[in-house]
């Protein structure tokens, strides 16, 4: 195993929630020497199917030897498995509910482990703190908890499409990130939203204030925005809503 330099938290727990705080505190007790970064905590609640398409973009060009501790887990306490995935030099720990499927599929080198180990004390409803955080700590210590190696093709979500023409995240400005990789879309493409066509612009200042447009965001995804406005409100879109490619 390569050394792990840091842990990045990826959750739907909400900004300032006690759940993020408890995970960071638990990790601090287990690994006082390893920095823990709250990468994102306001993913769409319960929507592992949406977060799966944002995660590969979030980790693009980030520092190597990072462990991403990922918890969007509406099935907590149920039958879903715990995963530890080594992908292109980084580790990902989280539930087998599709959340990590796109990361595993797109990696050039990948190793998928189902973690069979369980701690002596495990709450039914907070596996982020009680299960996934200790797994992450073990990996940072260079240890692999008891596991079964899996074929990546068996992961939940492995049969999902490579791109998702839906809104997967909305930021505080109302900008709407989709699950479409911008490199796959021609710049003359028009997106059909609420009966109107949205055209491409390179950035916000390329269009007048109040105008809607789509662009390639800093994560490499197609994003809908309104210059100095709120695309979520202007376009009447919400998380999980579908985007169509205009035929005009």
Write the layout of secondary structure elements.
Blueprint: E1 6-11, H1 18-30, E2 36-40, H2 48-58, E3 66-71, E4 82-87, E5 90-95, H3 101-106, E6 110-115, H4 127-140, E7 147-150, E8 164-170, E9 176-181, E10 191-193, E11 196-198, E12 212-216, E13 221-226, H5 231-235, E14 244-245
Parallel strand pairs: 1-2, 1-3, 3-5
Antiparallel strand pairs: 4-5, 4-6, 6-7, 8-9, 9-13, 10-11, 10-14, 12-13
Helix pairs in contact: 1-4
Question: Any overview of this molecule?
Answer:
With 248 residues, this protein is of the alpha+beta class. It has 5 helices and 14 strands. It has a 7-stranded mixed β-sheet with strand order 2-1-3-5-4-6-7.
Rg is 19 Å
Sheet with the most strands: spatial strand order: 2-1-3-5-4-6-7
String of helices and strands: EHEHEEEHEHEEEEEEEHE
Average residue pLDDT: 96
Q: Write down the overall geometry.
A: elongated
Describe, in short, the structure shown.
The protein is 20% helix and 29% strand. It has helices at 18-30, 48-58, 101-106, 127-140, 231-235, and strands spanning 6-11, 36-40, 66-71, 82-87, 90-95, 110-115, 147-150, 164-170, 176-181, 191-193, 196-198, 212-216, 221-226, 244-245. The radius of gyration is 19 Å and the shape is elongated.
């Amino acid at each position: 195993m390569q050394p792990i330099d840091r842990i990045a938290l990826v959750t739907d727990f909400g900004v300032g929630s006690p759940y993020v705080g408890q995970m960071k505190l638990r990790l601090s007790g287990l690994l006082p020497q390893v920095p823990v970064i709250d990468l994102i905590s306001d993913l769409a609640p319960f929507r592992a199917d949406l977060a799966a398409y944002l995660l590969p973009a979030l980790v693009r060009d980030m520092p190597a030897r990072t462990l991403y501790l990922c918890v969007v887990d509406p099935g907590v306490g149920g039958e879903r498995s715990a995963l530890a995935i080594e992908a292109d030099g980084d580790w990902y720990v989280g539930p087998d509910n599709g959340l990590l499927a796109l990361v595993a599929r797109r990696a050039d080198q990948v190793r998928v482990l189902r973690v069979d180990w369980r701690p002596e004390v495990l709450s039914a409803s907070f596996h982020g703190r009680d299960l996934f955080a200790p797994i992450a700590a073990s990996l940072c210590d260079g240890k692999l908890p008891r596991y079964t190696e899996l074929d990546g093709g068996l992961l939940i979500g492995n049969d999902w499409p490579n791109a998702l023409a839906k809104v997967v995240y909305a930021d505080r400005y109302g900008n709407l990130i989709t699950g479409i990789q911008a490199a796959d879309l021609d710049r003359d493409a028009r997106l059909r939203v609420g009966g109107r066509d949205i055209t491409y612009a390179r950035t916000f200042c390329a269009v007048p204030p109040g105008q809607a447009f789509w662009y390639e965001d800093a994560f490499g995804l197609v994003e809908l925005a309104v210059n100095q406005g709120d695309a979520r409100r202007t376009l009447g879109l919400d998380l999980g809503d579908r985007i169509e490619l205009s035929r005009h």
